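wait is this the right file?? whatever heres the structure
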């Protein structure tokens, strides 16, 4: 009996798959108990595997049970849902011999938490009875979709409200971008707690109102690190490093989350030296912070430093191993990636998909297929990776076969197939697939835009882009594609018009690539003075690419004086590459 109780205690605390498998083996040696106790132990094992994100193991335990109860079915459903396997979760729900309110709410919550708002609404209307949990889960689904009108209608129909209900309505307003409504709902709340205050703080932060978020923070009757970290993260996402650092310095206390946010913020914008200085100042290092620094190295291409850090980490987790695997792949070292993958004692969907992608990107399609076929479970990402693998290796027909073998297809899956046709130059098939898509997003429209750009037919490209602007779907990538098309087509005035409209009409700030395209199109069109002026006034430090673009244009239009100045800047920006380029330009 003592051994059984010890096993139950360890199962309750277990969060690692290797440890879970050992515990499972240990319980198999326990003497059999009464049917009720055996069900209880098996339920605990299903729950444990769910915490370890292994629905396959949870399923095996569930199917091996000679007897089950309602709790067994709900735990199996939740194990699937936790890992995003909603199809299997729904199948489990549909097969339940006896559904009660707990099982209905479990399925409803699964849909809501994974962004399946329409499925959640449909299930809500099918429920034979509901409680406050049911209403709040559906309200959360509306919030996730940003459907403020639906959330309002639902809360009006609710027989009773709780703080969770009000907070859900506030979240729906924030998600839809209606910060005024969010503020009004917050002000109308009959009572508030830390969660509702933090929800309002998040509403301001996620919509870019950092100043209002800071003012609200100081109005809160009490605030904790969660509130501070919310503002810190929002500022980091907004890209204002100076403001982010100021908030970080103002914090009365910090935890590892705070340090991770600030280190990652600097690293993602190329300030690796600052990231390393902050990393060295952190009072305590844990796996999360070490992995943040590892990601900083790999993100900025410092593979040697990343490997040194990885080799000296006190313990290796799946995240760090997968980050290194991806870094090896991006550096073209498939052998190192394969050696690391083979040495990993534990693999999951992310590591397997990373290895599959590494093989595919470097032309090892057979090896990619082998990894795919050996994966114990597949999700939408791994299926899409296999579709992409065939497309990248010039096999769009095989990609289509894999695509239509998928058990479920979402917009991201369709986008992968669409990209495959576009990358292989099959414009008519790309157009046909785009028309067949049940739903599209900005990525879908941009892929179609890229397909037109690749074909060189600018007429349909401009028409497509005009529709995108009308539907408010154009983003930075859309404008970059159009500017590239303008550059190759010599459309100087059209290019300038689109470039200026980014900020003035769409509130999009041009990045370095947009400026580079504009410099190129001005140079190609012979507007050398304008190109030089744009290099001098752009909010980025000009480098080798911008100066070589101008130098090439100076040579084409025989402007030796301006070309000499450009040559000096080229040599200064990158002496190693510059010597060969200047010799070629003067040939």
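ok assuming it is, sequence goes like this
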């Amino acid at each position: 009996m003592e051994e059984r109780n010890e096993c139950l205690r360890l199962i309750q605390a277990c969060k690692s798959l290797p440890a879970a498998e050992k515990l499972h083996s240990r319980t198999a040696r326990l003497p059999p108990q009464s049917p009720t106790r055996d069900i209880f132990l098996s339920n605990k094992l299903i729950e444990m595997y769910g915490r370890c994100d292994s629905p396959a193991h949870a399923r095996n335990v569930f199917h091996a049970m000679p007897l089950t109860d309602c709790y067994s079915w709900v735990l199996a459903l939740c194990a699937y849902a936790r890992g995003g396997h909603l199809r299997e979760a729904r199948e489990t729900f549909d097969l339940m011999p006896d559904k009660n309110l707990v099982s209905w709410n479990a399925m409803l919550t699964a849909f809501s938490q994974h962004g399946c708002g329409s499925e959640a609404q449909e299930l809500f209307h099918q429920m034979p009875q509901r409680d406050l949990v049911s209403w709040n889960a559906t309200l959360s689904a509306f919030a996730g979709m940003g459907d403020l009108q639906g959330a309002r209608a639902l809360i009006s129909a609710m027989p009773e409200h709780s703080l969770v209900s009000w907070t859900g309505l506030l979240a729906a307003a924030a998600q839809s971008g209606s910060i005024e409504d969010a503020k009004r709902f917050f002000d109308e709340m009959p009572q508030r707690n830390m969660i509702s205050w933090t929800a309002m703080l998040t509403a301001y932060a996620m919509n870019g109102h950092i100043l209002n978020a800071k003012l609200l923070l100081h109005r809160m009757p009490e605030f904790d690190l969660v509130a501070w970290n919310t503002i810190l993260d929002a500022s980091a996402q907004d890209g204002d490093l100076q403001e982010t650092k100021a908030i970080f310095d103002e914090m009365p206390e910090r935890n590892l989350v705070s340090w991770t946010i600030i280190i990652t913020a600097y690293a993602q914008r190329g300030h690796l030296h600052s990231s390393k200085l902050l990393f060295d100042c952190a009072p305590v290092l844990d796996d999360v912070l070490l992995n943040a620094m590892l990601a900083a190295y790999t993100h900025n291409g410092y593979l040697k430093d990343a490997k040194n850090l990885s080799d000296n980490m006190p313990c290796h987790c799946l995240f760090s191993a997968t980050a290194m695997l991806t870094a090896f792949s991006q550096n073209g070292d498939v052998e190192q990636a394969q050696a690391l993958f083979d040495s990993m004692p534990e693999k999951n969907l992310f590591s397997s998909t990373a290895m599959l992608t590494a093989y595919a990107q470097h032309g090892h399609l057979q090896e990619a297929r082998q990894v795919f076929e050996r994966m114990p479970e597949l999700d939408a990402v791994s299926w899409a990776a296999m579709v992409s693998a065939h497309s990248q290796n010039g096999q769009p027909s095989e990609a289509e076969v894999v695509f239509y073998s998928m058990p479920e297809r979402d917009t991201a899956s369709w986008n992968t197939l669409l990209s495959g046709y576009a990358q292989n130059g099959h414009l008519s098939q790309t157009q046909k697939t785009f028309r067949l898509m049940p739903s599209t997003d900005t990525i879908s429209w941009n892929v179609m835009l890229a397909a037109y750009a690749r074909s060189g037919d600018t007429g349909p490209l401009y028409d497509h882009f005009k529709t995108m602007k009308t539907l408010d779907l154009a983003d930075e990538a859309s404008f970059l594609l159009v500017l590239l098309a303008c550059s190759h087509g010599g459309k100087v005035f059209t290019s300038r018009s689109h470039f200026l409209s980014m900020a003035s009409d769409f509130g999009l700030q041009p990045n370095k690539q947009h400026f580079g395209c504009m410099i190129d199109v001005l140079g190609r069109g012979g507007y050398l003075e304008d190109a030089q002026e744009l290099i001098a006034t752009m909010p980025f430090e000009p480098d080798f690419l911008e100066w070589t673009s101008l130098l090439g244009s100076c040579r084409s239009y025989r402007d030796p004086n301006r070309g000499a100045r450009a040559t000096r800047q080229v040599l200064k920006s990158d002496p190693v590459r510059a010597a060969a380029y200047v010799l070629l330009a003067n040939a």
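The chain is about 75% helix and 0% strand. so i think its the right one actually
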